[in-house]
Design brief:
Protein name: NlpC/P60 domain-containing protein
CATH architecture: Alpha-Beta Complex
Number of helices: 6
Order of helices and strands: HHHEEHHEEEEEHE
InterPro entries: Murein_DD/LD_carboxypeptidase, NLP_P60_dom, Papain-like_cys_pep_sf
Organism: Sphingobacterium thermophilum
Family: Belongs to the peptidase C40 family.
Keywords: Hydrolase, Protease, Signal, Thiol protease
Number of strands: 8
Strand order of the largest sheet: 3-8-4-5-6-7
Oligomer: single chain
CATH class: Alpha Beta
Distance between the termini: 52 Å
Length: 179
């Protein structure tokens, strides 16, 4: 039975890694529910491996929060585990991890950041996107090594690569919340 699970996981990884024609390299850059590390005893070590950083560089509260929510489906206006949108997720994350209340919408959040260039980003900074229009309509939280956590409309809470051509094309602003 265990052998079957390993084979299924390998097939799933191969399918996912072959689907993104716009990817810059063959490494997997998004981590939906199927690869949730909930079964791992040490969440921080798992995310350190995923992000290619030393575990001591990670905020344990941030990654425990992410791990708790990874795979939660998207729901416009949602604020709980039955469904959440990007700004609701970021707002809840900042309240719980950083004890900071942010504005409710991604556009309002973008107005209160101290702007940075993408190469200056640090763990906990915000990244903003405009998909289809000029106005900001999506937000995520920067982690490490160009990776960020956000809520995908199709795949829910997940980790993606900021430099992936799809995201980088629509990146509009990034920075540290100031309040």
């Amino acid at each position: 039975m265990r052998y079957y699970h390993y084979i299924s996981a390998i097939i799933l990884i191969l399918l996912i890694s072959s689907c993104g024609a716009y990817k810059k390299d063959s490494s997997r850059t998004s981590y939906p529910l199927e690869s949730s590390p909930r079964e791992y005893k040490d969440v921080r070590n798992h995310y350190a491996q995923l992000l290619h950083v030393h575990p001591h560089k990670l905020n344990p509260a941030l990654y425990a929060y992410i791990d708790e929510w990874i795979g939660t489906p998207h729901r416009l206006g949602g604020q709980d585990k039955s469904g959440i949108d990007c700004s609701g997720f970021v707002n809840n994350l900042f309240q719980r991890v950083y004890n900071m209340k942010l504005p409710r919408t991604s556009r309002e959040m973008a107005e209160i950041v101290k702007r940075k260039y993408d190469h200056q980003l640090k763990e906990g900074d915000l990244v903003f996107f405009a998909f289809g229009e000029k106005e900001i309509d999506h937000v995520g939280v920067y982690l490490h090594n160009d990776m960020f956590v956000h809520v995908s409309t199709k795949r829910g809470v997940m980790i993606s690569n900021l430099k992936e051509s799809w995201f980088y094309k629509y990146l509009k602003r990034c920075g540290t919340p100031r309040m």
